[in-house]
Amino acid sequence: MNTMLAARAHQGAAELRLEQVPIAELGPREVRVRVAAAGIAPGMMKLLEKGLFKHLPSTPGHEIAGVVESIGSDVDPAWVGRRVRVHPMLSCGECDYCRTDRQQMCSECAMIGHAAFGTGPLALYARYHDGGLAEFARAPVDLLDVLPDPVSFEVGAKVHDLANAVRALKCSALPASGRLVVTAATGTMGTATIKLARFFGARELVLVARSRERLEAVRGMAGELPVSLVPLEELGADWETAQGLTRRLREIWPSGADGVLDYFPSGPGTGQAMAALALGGTLVHMGGNPSPVTWPIARIMQSCWRIVGTRACTRSDTDAVLQLLATGELQAEDLITHRFPLSRVNAALTAMMDRSEPMWMTVVQPGA
Fold this sequence. Notes:
Layout: E1 3-8, E2 17-22, E3 30-40, H1 43-49, E4 63-71, E5 83-86, E6 89-90, H2 96-99, E7 110-111, H3 123-128, E8 136-140, E9 144-146, H4 153-157, H5 159-172, E10 179-182, H6 188-196, E11 204-209, H7 212-219, E12 227-231, H8 244-252, E13 257-262, H9 269-274, E14 277-285, H10 297-303, E15 306-309, H11 315-327, E16 336-341, H12 345-354, E17 361-365
Parallel strand pairs: 10-11, 10-13, 11-12, 13-14, 14-15, 16-17
Antiparallel strand pairs: 1-2, 3-4, 3-8, 3-17, 4-5, 5-9, 6-7
Helix pairs in contact: 5-6, 5-11
């Protein structure tokens, strides 16, 4: 068999096209993975629209889990048949950023099956821009992680999102009191953060999202942590202009939140959550919100606030997730709410963008 079925992104196309494409030849230190599950996220199509997919047509899909089917030269034969995930982050491995656990800032930074963010020649991305929304995926062997036996392919594919939550939690550097606000708490990143918060210093949570019904559905993910819910639908029609979110957060914690992990994709919620920080508190933003936050710099200085932006996880973050999954301390199967065959990939993307029903993590199964 010299071809495979793949979902392809084309310049200017609003949907992916299912096509038969050649199976890529393997070079030294490369493996071919038969894809069992590939994660998807709504941001993928937004980045495609913005022109951050530099090689088109291309096969998207940066979250890949499956079985190693074949190997190139200089690869240990023991890899064949192993259950693995593919770490999607491409970087040079030699710069100061790469040497200090900040690969996402490397000038060569890009992701397999996803967008390019670096400013360099992006030589690795030129070879590995095709991702996991296909029957097979090619990757460097150095980017493979063996999946622990208890971990399903579906969860293995979503380790990247779980690790993004780990990165955000690390950036929050919570003090002992551990008062943490999570915005957009019923989305992919929000639910991942709720699951992981107790391992990274959280002692109390406030979860913010549009709907009380959806917030009640995720409350139990926090385990034994005390949880307060803030449905935006209950703040009043004028909450966006009347600082309704800030007021409600201050009612819950009058002295303020130690940290806000902000995943709002748009709107004034980011600034209002920031205004509810305690003295010395930290806002970590990972939502791509284009709305401006207007604060006098003196207010930030006097409040000793830290404002941190972070755009992706690193290998140390995925290692932490895999360790928690391997020991059973972290249970994540319930995060996988939707599964689609490759033939319905566009339906999956539409459902993710629409969000008419609760949808935490979604995977495509090429073999289904």
